[in-house]
Every structure is written in structure tokens, then in C-alpha cells.
Write a structure and sequence with these properties.
Layout: H1 7-12, E1 32-34, H2 44-50, E2 56-62, E3 65-69, H3 70-73, E4 85-87, E5 90-94, H4 127-137
Antiparallel strand pairs: 1-2, 2-3, 3-5, 4-5
Organism: Rubroshorea leprosula
Keywords: Signal
InterPro entries: PLATZ (IPR006734)
């Protein structure tokens, strides 16, 4: 079982609070995490002054849940088996489990830990669920080379890659059909 020492601290950190030192600044919310120091979340200005030469990742928000860009986290952590999503043109994954009502009939892929429905035939919906799976079963790993990740019996994880990135597009699509306001009398 290979779990980086900073992972549990990252997953239990509270992000997006106002920085005690730089709270009045424009970028004073705590959305950074230092893998070297393994302390609390900090803001953009604290990074410049205290974590200049450290390995830092930025946490983002999606629908009130913390996410991290795949391009940042995959440099330091094996994220195989975790569902990724494209949000605002960036591939991300969720840090922790998200509550979800019971999945309906016809859902083909479920998170092994929380039962959340997945888009792809993967094992976990978040890094937090993968951590629980590694601790519980020991048949998954966070080592960067990916050794230790085993397939569940009956899965076809190697056949189906994670959701591919959409092709770059310069045209912006509308989010819906425009509706005019009713005429007043």
C-alpha cells in the first residue's frame, strides 16, 4: 500500500476560506496546497512569500465541490481508476466523495466505495474514495508508476480509456434556446 504522506492532509484541508494575512487582497482566498509543507491551505500571496520553491497545487471549485486539474495532480500521484470530468475546458477530478441520491436502474458503472454512478468503467469517483479503497483492499496504489493497480474481476478497464478530451473549438455554443420576454399590456 503506497499512499503519499501529504494525501490525507490534502483531502481533509478546508479550502476557499479567507486568508488571515491577505484577506483584503483580490486573490486572498485559500485555494493552494503545498505538497512539501503538508500544512493548511493558503492563498496566492502566501505562495509567493512562503512556498516559492515548493511543489504546490491549486484547488478549484465545481458546483461547491473541490477539484484539481488532472495536469497538475498526475505529475505527483497515480490517478488511474478515478473518474475525470471536463469542466470549463479543463480535465479535473474531485478530491472527495460527493453526496448523490440512490442511482437509478440501468447505471452500468458505480464507485466501489460510495456507489456513485460513473461515466466510464472505472473504480472510484474521487481521490478520497480511491484512498479508502487502497486502505481497505490494498489492491490499488498511488505510486506514480502505476504498479499495484489491479483490475477487479470482470472489469474491462484496459479496454475503455477515460473520457476523451473534447476537440478544441473556437466557436462558442449557446447554453440554450433564447426566449423573449412576454409583451406587457
Amino acid at each position: 500500500m503506497s499512499v503519499p504522506p501529504w494525501l490525507e492532509s490534502l483531502l481533509s484541508s478546508a479550502f476557499f476560506s479567507v486568508c488571515q494575512t491577505h484577506g483584503d487582497a483580490a486573490r486572498g482566498e485559500c485555494n493552494m496546497y503545498c505538497l512539501d509543507c503538508q500544512g493548511d491551505a493558503f492563498c496566492y500571496y502566501c505562495r509567493s512569500s512562503k512556498h516559492k520553491d515548493h511543489q504546490v497545487i491549486q484547488i478549484r471549485r465545481s458546483s461547491y465541490h473541490d477539484v484539481v486539474r488532472v495536469s497538475e495532480i498526475q505529475k505527483v500521484l497515480d490517478i488511474s481508476g478515478v473518474q475525470t470530468y471536463v469542466i470549463n475546458s479543463a480535465r479535473v477530478l474531485f478530491l472527495n466523495e460527493r453526496p448523490q441520491p440512490k442511482s437509478g436502474k440501468g447505471v452500468a458503472h458505480l464507485c466501489e466505495i460510495c456507489g456513485r454512478s460513473l461515466l466510464d468503467p472505472l473504480r472510484f469517483c474521487s481521490l478520497g474514495c480511491k484512498l479508502v479503497g487502497v486502505k481497505r483492499h490494498g489492491n490499488a496504489s498511488f505510486t506514480i508508476d502505476g504498479r499495484g493497480e489491479e483490475l477487479r474481476e470482470g472489469t474491462q478497464q484496459d479496454i475503455y480509456p477515460s473520457t476523451p478530451s473534447p476537440p478544441p473549438s473556437s466557436a462558442r455554443r449557446r447554453k440554450g434556446i433564447p426566449h423573449r420576454a412576454p409583451f406587457g399590456s
